[in-house]
């Protein structure tokens, strides 16, 4: 049966808050994984831009003795070339980790706030954001 207007509003705030927390947890996990995996690209492009004479032209010793404009340009190009495969690797790591941790099972539908007697996802499945019941680990995305 439907909830009253004030009760529906209160439960809506609970569901929205919970879904927002799950969303930001996913976003933080994605940020950490992408930062770690793309660190080589970040470092290479940073040093390329830092030592190029027409960009930042740092006065650091390694810029004067090791890197000239040609090698700085090569570092910038190399950094952008290796970025594409590393983005694919980072996305694969994030997706496999999110699937293994069942992070997307933590989102709750809006019907939890509108109707009385609708059980929460973790209550029905035996744990917080659990995907132990009904989850076949042998199923692949491409099948």
TrEMBL record:
It is found in: Membrane. The keyword Transmembrane helix applies. The chain crosses the membrane at residues 27-49, 74-95. Keywords: Membrane, Transmembrane, Transmembrane helix. GO terms for cellular component: plasma membrane. GO terms for molecular function: PDZ domain binding. It is a multi-pass membrane protein. Belongs to the TMEM88 family. This is TMM88 protein. The lineage of its organism: Eukaryota, Metazoa, Chordata, Craniata, Vertebrata.
């Amino acid at each position: 049966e439907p909830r009253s207007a004030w009760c529906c509003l209160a439960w809506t705030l609970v569901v929205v808050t919970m879904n927002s927390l799950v969303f930001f947890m996913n976003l933080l996990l994605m940020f950490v994984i992408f930062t770690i995996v793309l660190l080589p690209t970040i470092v290479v492009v940073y040093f390329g831009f830092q030592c190029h004479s027409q960009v930042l032209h740092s006065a650091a010793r390694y810029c004067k003795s090791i890197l000239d404009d040609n090698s700085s340009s090569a570092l910038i190009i190399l950094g952008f070339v290796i970025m594409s495969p590393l983005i694919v690797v980072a996305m694969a790591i994030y997706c496999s980790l999110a699937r293994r941790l069942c992070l997307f099972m933590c989102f709750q539908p809006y019907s939890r706030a509108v109707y009385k007697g609708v059980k929460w996802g973790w209550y029905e499945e035996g744990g917080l954001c659990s995907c132990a019941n009904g989850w076949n680990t042998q199923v692949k995305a491409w099948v």
